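In the laboratory, one determines a bound structure by crystallizing the protein with its ligand and collecting diffraction data. In a computational setting the workflow is compressed into a single prediction: the sequence and the ligand go in, and a structural description comes out. We illustrate the idea with JFZ.
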Amino acid sequence: MNMGKYITLVAALFVFTGRAEYKPEPWNIKAREEFAAKRFGVFIHWGLYANYAQGEWYLQHGKLDESAYSRMMYGFYPSRFDAREWVRIIKGAGAKYITITSRHHDGFSLWPTKVDDGYNIANTPFKRDILGELASACREEGIQLNFYYSLMDWHRADYPAGFLTKTIPFARERKPDYAAYKRFMLGQIAELIDSYRPGVIWFDGEWEHAREIDGKFTRTLDWQLDSIYDFIHERRTLAANNNHQPIRAREDIQLFERDLPGENAEGFSKGQTVALDRPIEQCDVIQKNVWGYKIGEKSFRSAPEVVAMVVRAAAKDSNLLMNIGPDGSGQFPAEAVSAMAEVGRWFAVNGESVYGTRAGGVGKGRQVVSTRKGDDVLYLHFLDPEVDAFSFRFSGKVASATLLDGGRPVDAVCSADGTLAVTLPEAGQNSRFDRVVKIRVADR
Ligand code: JFZ
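The predicted complex, in structure-token form:
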């Protein structure tokens, strides 16, 4: 074969196998759009670590032995776990989906998986299929269920330990074998999708093998993520990865951890370009500084704070995934329950200004932000109790301007120079919650 023919053949093969350029299928585009329209979800970090009540990293932070830590499997009995009650609280908060840790870094699985070595819920005294019960409760209530899945694993001997996993005292002999570990992961992911039909598989932990070493971004393991994403997509499920890296073609959602596009508040999204063609999701915590329940952490976000976070995210075209860590009894911390109930009361009145909206495009820093529905409706969110008025460039015509809560008319005065001045009717009342003005734009 001459060289020219060879090159043509290779090129044809690339096109044929679809490797040249990835294009999401129509079901996938639709699923992304439906996911983005939800705007508000609740993250749940739960596993054996809930019993230690020191956060989800306690195996590593506490310098525990993996073999000592994992014995908690025989003491895991969350007697108050009630999936319906969780879903009632979450739905009542106004959230539209749940993302739960099917398996966190400690390697313990919250469902009776058949493909592991027995380190899962079936071998606890509790025995019940937590993900199964949650999936049924979500299906009954029309809430989407998604699964966090850790790529990094602190329990399995075949996992090729990176810089972090190596710090964990491990009694057995490590036999790094990524092919075997990947088979295990794909087996679990197939089980998760076939049994519980999640909307999204949400990965985390890639970063232990992709980070800066001596000032140079270095990958110490080839995770073969494209093939994992293809495996998930074949099963009509979305894939996301919390890796703080520029988004890959096959990743369906761009994740920001405790940051919003362009804010880099926690330093995680430094240098991250925003994907304009993908839904965005920001995750954050209600019990501060921790994802898994921590008994000594007394600081919780208030309801107005949670509402403001969802609204600021929506104003940047992003969802908010607010984490709650249930305790070892299976209950959400009381502070989270009462805050979420208050959040729900705000959403019951103001939800239309968040669900299914896009970034509004106008605003004033963190004080006033906006969302919109098409070109017909603009929602102004007054997030600062001290700010009751806002002017912005506006070339359209206002059909009506009302306070979403109660429907009273709002002063919205157009000037000849093309600005619209909006003043709240309740000026001076300093509500702790976001006050929303709904502006209907007239047909021109
Ligand atoms: C991870 C987990 O380690 C943590 O326990 C929690 O589950 C959170 C949602 O995700 O935290 C991260 C994720 C990414 C990086 C660091 C910590 N990273 O890219 O450096």
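The longest helix spans residues 178-196. Keep in mind that any predicted model is a hypothesis to be tested, not a measurement.
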